[in-house]
Specification:
Blueprint (H helix, E strand, L loop, with lengths): L22 H5 L7 H14 L2 H6 L16 E13 L6 E12 L2 E14 L2 E9 L1
Antiparallel strand pairs: 1-2, 2-3, 3-4
């Protein structure tokens, strides 16, 4: 289920910008300019139920056949720890982050280093190492 999000609400990715100036335009089709921007937009898509965006930005060689929503999961915070490469003028990059979520009321954390690649001019998520 996609949750409505006002363009003036703070973006769930934690950038400090509004959704309308941060991840919203990417969810509506604008390309991410960096691997870091794509990672934040993917987190935001999980947080707002935009699994269509998560699927569309996943490398076709590594993405699952289907993404099922997890209604018992609520994403509550993102901390970007380190970004290596993935700039506007590059074709690969990694982003290490911690994402906090509640699953059935229990607080949990995903700590991973995600790999991104530019494919046909657009950044996509390839895979990750989970810490």
């Amino acid at each position: 289920m996609t949750l409505p999000r006002s363009a003036v609400q703070q973006c769930p990715c934690g950038s400090g910008a509004t959704y309308g100036r941060c991840c919203g335009p990417l969810h509506d089709g604008a390309p991410a300019t960096t691997a870091g921007a794509l990672m934040r937009a993917r987190y935001c898509a999980f947080a707002t139920g935009r699994l269509d965006y998560v699927f569309a930005t996943w490398h076709p060689a590594t993405r699952p056949v289907d993404l099922a929503p997890a209604p018992e999961v609520r994403w509550v915070g993102l901390e970007v720890l380190k970004t290596v490469d993935g700039r506007v003028d590059q074709d690969t990059g990694t982003v290490e982050f911690r994402a906090r979520f509640l699953a059935s009321g229990r607080s949990q954390v995903v700590h991973e280093t995600s790999r991104f690649q530019r494919r046909a001019g657009r950044w996509v998520y390839v895979d990750a190492d989970i810490a």
